[in-house]
């Protein structure tokens, strides 16, 4: 079968792709621009995307090819979020407490949403409540890893809060917002999907044919990379399965990450995870964040009304999602609990998903949707920096320890 000629990609699309790749590379350097100033890489990537996009310089557009790579990056973002839950061994008590906190945030968010709707906001109260109760765990994990905070009590609290603030909203969005078959049918399908995921996980942990294990070990440091290929195949299969039954594809990506995280929970698995992270954080995930900046509707946000609503939503994110941090106050202390509240209020990917689906259903206007996404954007830009400043007391290093390059 002949290869697709490069000419099939227009010059403008190819130029945009090169600029996106260049921005992702530059972001890695700019995030370490000073010895004491360590910016979250995702923040720099989004800002560079805004600058490259049509709202500022107009040098790059998100065409079909870039959008495909961006969606693949989003899937990998949730995939690594699932891996991180297992890799960091988040205690059950942290997940339970995070779930209780998320329930409080959801109730508070829905109440706020209906109050705003009653005051004339062109958005359904339940949709606003779901959007305000999300947490961008996939965004926070690399930030926590870069700061060295992920192994601290605060890191455990953020992971517990983030797991609940990502998993439960994904579930609700998949059942109630997609509306492919109806809530009752989709609830049953979710149980079936969960059973399939559980069965695959059990099979992956127990069924280890000696020949397959030998092949995986032999190709670990060769071009074969069998374990990496199997992980990517599982990701694709569960994303396809989730999409086919009417769920958001990120649910399948998150489930795949949980399964792979279980399998890689061993010393040998660390090498495989490094290979996967090279694909994700070195290539596709940065494309997602740069593309997010390119496609952001800056004009709508910068109108007086749109900006005012965005600032309101930004404050409500902190109020609604940060309320769950009160459950950790006694354990963490006031300063660390405040940092947890700000970390928990960092949200973007699921806000985008909620607004997209809500707009299609007529549950939110495009202008309010832009302001809500803008608030999520601002939260990613500002809240991790504020939270890190609140929490940084000299108890953890400025960055992760250097990796042993002999493994590559």
In short:
The chain is an all-alpha fold. The protein has helices at 11-30, 41-52, 64-87, 92-118, 125-132, 137-147, 153-177, 183-206, 210-218, 226-244, 249-263, 267-295, 298-301, 304-322, 329-332, 334-344, 349-360, 366-391.
Write the layout of secondary structure elements.
Elements: H1 11-30, H2 41-52, H3 64-87, H4 92-118, H5 125-132, H6 137-147, H7 153-177, H8 183-206, H9 210-218, H10 226-244, H11 249-263, H12 267-295, H13 298-301, H14 304-322, H15 329-332, H16 334-344, H17 349-360, H18 366-391
Helix pairs in contact: 1-2, 1-12, 2-12, 2-18, 3-6, 3-11, 3-12, 4-5, 4-7, 4-14, 5-17, 6-7, 7-8, 7-16, 7-17, 8-11, 10-11, 14-16, 14-18, 16-18, 17-18
What does this 3D model show about the protein?
It is a single chain. This protein is mainly α and 408 residues long. It has one domain (12-397): Up-down Bundle (Na+/H+ antiporter like fold). The protein has 18 helices and no strands. Mean pLDDT is 83; it is low at 396-408.
Number of structurally distinct domains = 1
| Element string (H = helix, E = strand) | HHHHHHHHHHHHHHHHHH
Name of the CATH first level: Mainly Alpha
Overall shape:
globular
Mean pLDDT, rounded to whole units?
83
At CATH level 2, the architecture is Up-down Bundle
CATH topology grouping: Na+/H+ antiporter like fold
Q: Give a count of the beta strands, DSSP E runs of length 2 or more.
A: 0
> Segments where pLDDT lies below 50 for 5+ residues?
396-408
**Secondary structural class:** mainly alpha
How far the N terminus sits from the C terminus, by CA atoms, comes to: 33 Å
Compute the number of helices. 18
Main pleated-sheet profile: none
Radius of gyration: 21 Å
């Amino acid at each position: 079968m002949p290869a697709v000629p490069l000419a099939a990609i227009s010059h403008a699309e190819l130029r945009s792709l090169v600029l996106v790749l260049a921005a992702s590379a530059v972001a890695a350097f700019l995030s370490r621009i000073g010895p004491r100033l360590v910016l979250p890489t995702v923040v720099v990537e989004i800002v560079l995307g805004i600058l490259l996009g049509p709202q500022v310089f107009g040098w790059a557009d998100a065409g079909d090819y870039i959008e495909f790579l961006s969606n693949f990056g989003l899937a990998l973002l949730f995939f690594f979020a699932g891996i991180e839950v297992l890799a960091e061994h988040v205690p059950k008590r942290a997940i339970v407490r995070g779930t209780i906190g998320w329930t409080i945030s959801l109730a508070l968010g829905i109440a706020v949403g209906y109050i705003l709707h009653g005051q004339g906001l062109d958005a359904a109260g339940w949709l606003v409540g779901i959007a305000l109760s999300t947490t961008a765990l996939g965004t926070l994990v690399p930030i926590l890893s870069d700061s060295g905070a992920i192994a601290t009590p605060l890191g455990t609290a953020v992971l517990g809060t983030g797991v609940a603030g990502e998993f439960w909203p994904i579930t609700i969005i998949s059942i109630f917002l997609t509306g492919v078959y109806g809530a009752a049918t989709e609830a049953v399908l979710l149980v079936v999907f969960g059973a399939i995921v559980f069965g695959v996980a059990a099979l992956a942990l127990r069924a280890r044919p000696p020949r397959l294990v030998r092949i995986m070990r032999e190709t670990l440091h060769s071009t074969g990379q069998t374990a990496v290929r199997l992980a990517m195949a599982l990701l694709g299969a569960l994303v396809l399965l989730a999409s086919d039954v009417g769920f958001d594809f990120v649910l399948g990506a998150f489930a795949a990450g949980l399964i792979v995280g279980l399998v890689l929970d061993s010393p040998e698995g660390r090498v495989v995870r490094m290979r996967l992270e090279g694909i994700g954080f070195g290539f596709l995930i940065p494309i997602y964040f740069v593309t997010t900046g390119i496609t952001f509707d800056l004009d709508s946000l910068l109108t007086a009304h749109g900006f005012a609503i965005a600032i309101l939503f930004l404050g409500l994110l902190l109020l609604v999602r940060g309320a769950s941090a009160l459950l950790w106050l006694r354990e963490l202390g006031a300063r660390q609990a405040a940092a947890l509240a700000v970390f928990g209020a960092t949200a973007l990917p699921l806000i985008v998903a909620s607004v997209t689906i809500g707009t299609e259903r007529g549950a939110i206007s495009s202008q309010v949707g832009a302001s809500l996404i803008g608030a999520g954007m601002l939260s990613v830009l500002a809240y991790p920096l504020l939270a890190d400043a609140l929490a940084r007391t000299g108890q953890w290093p400025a960055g992760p320890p250097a990796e042993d390059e002999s493994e590559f």
